[in-house]
Design brief:
The complex is a heterodimer of chains A (about 190) and B (about 160).
Chain A (H helix, E strand, L loop, with lengths): L2 H12 L2 H26 L2 H18 L9 H21 L11 E3 L11 H13 L3 H12 L4 H8 L3 H24 L5
Helix pairs in contact in A: 1-2, 2-3, 2-4, 3-4, 5-8, 6-8
Chain B lengths: L10 E3 L7 H14 L6 H30 L8 H7 L3 H11 L5 H8 L4 H5 L3 H4 L9 H10 L9 H6 L1
Helix pairs in contact in B: 2-4, 2-5
The chains are: A mainly alpha (about 190), B mainly alpha (about 160).
Chain lengths: ~190, ~160
Amino acid sequence: MTEQDQKWRDTIQKGGKKAEKAFQDLTIFYGPKLYAQVYKMVKNDTSTKDVLQETFIKIWLNIAKFEGKSSFYSWLYRIAHNEALSFLNKEKRKSSISLDQNIIELIPGSQELQGKGTDEILFLLNKATANLPEKQALVFELKYFQNLSYKEIQEITNTSQGALKASFHIAKEKISNFLILKLNQSPLV
Amino acid sequence: MDNKKNILDFIKPVKTTLPKEDYFAHLALNIAQTEQIPINPEKNTKVRFLAFGYAAAAVLVIGFILFQQFMPPSVEHIGYEKYLGELSPNEIIEYVESNIDEYSEDELIEASLPITEEEMESTKFTEIFGYIPDEVKTETIEQYLDEDFINLNDFDENELLIF
């Protein structure tokens, strides 16, 4: 937990106007990162905003109980991830979600990706990420999808850049192995 | 596929269009103003019990100090009185803090109760300071008070309450 995270948590715990302001600052700082994370899963702006609202309600209601044993962002990431999964489970019973914009682009040159659609690959990417240990998944999300520098990730996660690089490298290997394995199987499971 | 390249090198994430800062600020404010943060009852009980424990410990220590003051120097300490006489108030507080779990809630409540008006109006010293052990005779205390020309009536209520 960074010093800034601690300040936000302590101020929110005390309540009042200062708590509202601290929560606003926290949301402005972490909101975009969580938005990008959730968007990748639920795939449209309206749904992402619905999920994000539930995520931040949970953060607001439970931040006082957060003891700081793990990284604060890991905690936020987990809440957002669970909220997005819960949303997707509910949506399955309704209708399919429309895609607002592409989340990934496929670059020609890969034999495994030939003839595959972006939706299919994104589905596999999300599945592969979900199978990773939380820390690796988080680093992969921030580095690969959100293109943050290691320095920025270090500031968020309070982890050394060396450890982040190692985590990203392992995550990338695991995901690419998973993709190759699944793409070589037919049909996709 | 080029063997040197990772499959992920052929998948390019597209930068997500993010909402403006206003959206996040408004979202936070809306949540903070509509959602009531629940009070953690467990934590509150702990804090209350701790404060209660400190209050009880303080009463015990102050009572002990008072007891020491009113004891005639010639009276020989016996048993735990002698032992307690060798301890500093800090040592006693430390003991109470580390053993507070052994006291029942009722015992703590009883120990921290303030002196009642009824007790204050009592003419008998031992009824006011009920914690003085039975071994100390009332006559001994009264004798001490007489010898030092101490009259309880000379003290106002606030002064007695300090003890």
